[in-house]
Every structure is written in structure tokens, then in C-alpha cells.
Predict the 3D structure of the following.
Amino acid sequence: MVKQLAGKKQLNTATEEDLAMAMHTIKARFVVGLMNHMEESVARFNLVMGVDFTGGRDKSCWDKYFGHGIRKSNSNSHPKIDKEHPAFRLLAERNDLDIRLFSYAIELFEEQKSLISRWQRDDLE
């Protein structure tokens, strides 16, 4: 992801500068959403894009993906891999900059909460 956001080809090596560029791009251009906060993320996207899910077909879509209790239509199960597993360690080592970018995205998700709340309040007034 760092390479992609920095405009590099996959065969190129990503650098700290590329990570900084990717972080800047995400902060300047993205509303961050997280899978483990899917409902909140989609609500943020809808607010920013001006989508209203209070009635009709839009509400039916919302209910389809978020209205089924514990089992959500948008969820997929994935096996859990221990951080000490050799495969995990190898992937983490090879993707260190992407992991750091993801950690930054989580921080940005929290930081954007207040921005989204203000936007929502301004939208209601």
C-alpha cells in the first residue's frame, strides 16, 4: 500500500520517505474506515457523501448489511495466526512500512472522530 500511495511500481523498494508521503496522502485525502468498526465507518462515509439511510431502498440496504445481529452480511471469517508463527514474522518483516501505515490509519480513524462529529453537527444546523 505504501508503494501504491507513493506512486511506486511493485518491483521498487519502498523507503521511509515513501511512508511519509503515503501518510500525508491518507491524512489529506481519505476518510479512514476500519473493518472492525464497519458500521461506524460506513456511517462516516455516508455522512461525507451525503447519503441518507433513513428510509426506502437505502434503509433496506443498511439493514441487510448491519441489521442481522451478530452475523453480519459483510463479515468473513479469517483464521487467526499467532504473532510468533514464522509466516507471520516473515510477512511482518517484509511489510514493515505497510504495518506502520496501518497503525497510522488507526490513529487517524480516532483523530477523525472529532472532525466527523463537527461535520455532522454543522450538517444538522
Residues 2-124 form one domain. The mean pLDDT is 84.
